[in-house]
Fold this protein.
Amino acid sequence: MIIDRGMVSATEFAYIAGVSDREVNRLVDERILPDFLFKIDNGRRFDLSAAALASFYFGAVDVLTAETRKSVIRELAERIKDEPTCNVVFECESCSHATASHKLDLHVYWRFLKIDMDPFVSAVCERATDAARASQTVLSDPEILGGEPVFAGTRVPVDNVLGSLDEGMSLENLQSSWSFLSKSLIDDARLYVKLHPRRGRPRAPNVEVAGWKLRSRKIIPPGTNDA
């Protein structure tokens, strides 16, 4: 029985697993991951359970041979194949798809070796927690500004804030207009943009929403003399 434990995009998967985009493609092209752990449908999507496996495969490259690493992945994949939740491998609060009812044994004995997946799972969980928090910080809803990403609970476009910062505006000046902003929210917003890249050229800051004027690529707050 094949169970969908929650699929994420290749970009999200690469970040959570701590691997490069090229390495994510290798997982599929070289058949490193079993077929049930990914889908190819309007882009590649990956089961969250595979994040720790991918992290292990590329993280142990200097210690174990490729065949040994593939064997470990095959054994662990068989253990998780019929589990109802991705949390059996992905044991952290950030997994929003379900909650594990038990802990899966993530130790593999290979000849005279004992392979412990815990370090890889811990690192994956930390990154997944960051990704989950970013998805809660930023909202993209077709009913709000046509789906443009905004800070949750507001109508403030993320592009406006990040674009202003990138143009040299200080966070303190931004807070004079949007007092809710904080460094942690900015960090979450940048991560969200990284994990959810938008097609086409980036939009210029929508200064009308912010109430600022754009002059020579500098953002000027309302009331400032721009003569």
